[in-house]
Amino acid sequence: MRPPEELDSVDWASLRHGMREDASNVPRIIRALYTDDGRSALDQVRSLWVLTRWAEVYSATLAAIPFLAHAAAHVPRVRAELIHWLANVTDGRGPGSTERTEDDAVVFDLVLAELPALLRFLEDPDPETRRAVVCLTPLAALVGEDVGDRLARRYEEDPDGMVRADALSALAALRSDAVRGWAAEALTDPEPLVREGGAVLLLEEAGTPYPADLVEVLAEASAHPPPRNGLRTFLAGLPDPASRTVRVLDADAGVMAVVARRSIAAGDHGRQGTQLASRLASTWRDREEEAFALLVSALPYGHGDTFRDLGELLPYVRHVDRPGIAAEVLPHARDTGSGTDYYRSRSARMLLGQLGDERVEGLLPGHEPGAVPDSEDDADVLGELAVATGRLDLWRSVLRSPHLRKANQALDALSPAVTGELRPELVALLRARRHVWAAATALAEAEVAAPDAMAALTEISHEPDGYEPPADAHNSWDVWARQDRGAARTGNQIAAAVALARLGGPSEPALALLAQGPVTWLALARHLGPAARPLLPLVEAALEEPAPATRLSAAEVHRRITGDPYARCVPALTDLVRTRPGDGAHRAAPLPAALAALAELGVTPDGIRPHLRTWADSERRIIPCYGRRGPLDDDVLREAARAHLLLLGDR
Question: Reduced to 3 states, what is the DSSP secondary structure of residue 235?
Fold first, then answer.
């Protein structure tokens, strides 16, 4: 441990953390832990996120750990939060980690060095502190400390249910020979968290199919609300009780649905039931309808994430009572201010738009029906409504909005069927240098070669060096392309030049820009066909790039240019779908788009044949999905595998 008086002995300016190369602000953050500045303990510790940004550690993290351990030992107000932080920073950095870096090992050893002094707080008066120390106990044996008896007392005698539940989980790792007896006793414990923990431990031991009596205990216990919103901590590399429960449920879709249904019926405390419902569709195939029905049953609770999850599942459900769902969502869609309430109301309005309920127009704060939306949120809602209803007046209104986001559904859904009608709005976007990629691509796909469109595309593709994007360039591809290339020529030019060539204009500007741009932009050369032959050396080089997505697009471009899929395209695709020796089908899913491309070409590599049946028929998703926009990788994988089985006459 190092006291704050020694902070100035460290050259923090020469160290870095997750925000910048100069970590000279770290002493101020650490000193603030010793003062009562009116902030909560959690807020004070939250500033330490710069030391573990993106779950990584940095040179400043290593230097800070002894100081943070001292603060944990000497400042009771932040003790629990800091011990939780120290426990979390060890997660995945122990000797058994397969991706352990040198810094990970140093962090782990630094926390171990402080562990003996922190274990004395296992009997601290504060339950959150006791719980935090319990999370460190699985590491105690590494420093010669036997805490089994003390941990058993915490499980048997602690008055706090969360401490006892964590202690039971930790004991399962320390004393596996005795844990079955503890777990069996826990099934009748008065504390729901302990009953849940006991059931999970016994379910882990039993395996699937799970015994019905244990499932009943788990479902009943997990439906209870937790005694408080405690800090979430990983037990020094082991799953915390909540994660352990999810891992058990992940193994059985039926049991996951049972527990989700029971939790929702009991009030969906902490959104446990609806989170499990969403996970059901993300982890298992063909469970969208069941997950959707579970989420609909949770609508009365008005969780913003429930509305969002329903919107994501909506395109995958065949029979939807849209009026009935809209009637339940409508009361939650009125603007109620800011923070959590605003997120709920905004999410409800988004779902109403996706359901095609036109009443949502009158619920947008400050918006007049028929007017151009004057905020990003309003534009998003009306974009969803435009796609759901097909109303061109709404589509025009959204595309005219100065607050149109790149991810707006109206841009995502620009199909040839509507692009011709929306040509004036799309040309206006081109002239304003906003959303050039989406507008240019839509015009090219719909073959809209009108004079005004061709003129705008020509102007953009010949933009002079040193061109500066407009004031709202944060909504356009300009900034992204400049960051990627560090050059004056922009991604707008490339997108416009390729669209121009596709519409019958000259191909020379597109070829010149693609030759100068980054390798990732070469994918657009597929639209030029044989005219892109001058780019063939660059395409050949891209086939050797390490990034799978780059090799995939290069293979397709090579085929389009040469007309020969067997020279380089099929070998490259075969390499992308090849499973490695010892890899099971669930751990080595191929690139789905590559597998689909091979099926289209009528080629099934020998190396993938043993896996096709699993990829095609698995009830569990080979590639889990979290968030749904566009085709799911797992769905593409399944359909491609089925196509290969048909080619082989095996279906």
Answer: strand
Q: What is the DSSP letter of 476?
A: S
Q: How far apart are CA 61 and CA 57, in angstroms?
A: 6
Please report the beta strands in 182-333, taking only residues with DSSP state E, as ranges in sequence order: none
Kind plus residue range of the DSSP H or E element containing 127: helix 127-134
Fill in the amino acid letter for 599. A
What's the pLDDT tens digit per position in 308-319?
999 999 999 999
DSSP tally for the chain: helices H, then strands E? 34, 0
Buried b (16+ CB within 10 A) or exposed e, 328-352: ebbebbeeeeeeeeeebbbbbbbbb
Among residues 98, 12, 92, 99, which one has the least CA distance to residue 58? 12
- Do the beta carbons of residue 268 and residue 303 sit within 8 Å? yes
43 has pLDDT over 50: yes
Q: Peptide bond preceding 315: is omega within 30 degrees of 0, i.e. cis?
A: no
Q: Which of 405, 394, 395 is nearest to 434 (CA)?
A: 405
Provide the β-strand partners of residue 152: none
Report residue 349 as tokens.
């309005």
CA distance 512 to 525: 11
> What's residue 477's pLDDT?
38
Distance CA 475, CA 259 (A): 43
The secondary structure of 420-470, three-state, reads CCCHHHHHHHHHCCCCHHHHHHHHHHCCCCCHHHHHHHHHHHCCCCCCCCC
Question: Which residues contact residue 55 at a Cβ distance below 8 angstroms, ignoring those fewer than 6 apart?
Answer: none
In this prediction the pTM is 0.86
Query: What CA–CA distance (Å, rounded) separates 158 from 615?
Result: 48
Alpha helices in 17-126 (DSSP H): 26-32, 41-46, 59-74, 76-90, 102-119
Region for residue 602 given its phi and psi (left: phi exceeds 0; alpha: psi -120 to 50; beta: otherwise): left
> How far is residue 497's CA from residue 517's CA, in Å, rounded to a whole number?
13
User: Which residue, among 576, 571, 558, has the nearest Cα to 640 in the 3D structure?
Assistant: 576
Integer angstrom CA distances of residue 63 from 11, 225, 234, 622: 10, 40, 23, 41
With cut-offs at 50, 70 and 90, classify the pLDDT of residue 518: confident
Contact 568, 558 (CB under 8 A): yes
Cα four-point dihedral sign 467, 472, 473, 477: negative
Report long-range pairs for 429-433 (Cβ below 8 Å, ≥24 apart): 429/399, 430/456, 430/457, 430/460, 430/496, 431/456, 431/459, 432/470, 432/472, 433/460, 433/469, 433/470, 433/473, 433/476, 433/478, 433/492
465-488 core/surface letters (b: 16 or more CB in 10 A; e: else): eeeebeeebebbbbeebbeebeee
- List the one residue out of 294, 293, 291 whose CA is nearest residue 279: 291
Model confidence pLDDT, tens digit, residues 398-433: 999 998 998 899 998 999 999 999 999 999 999 998
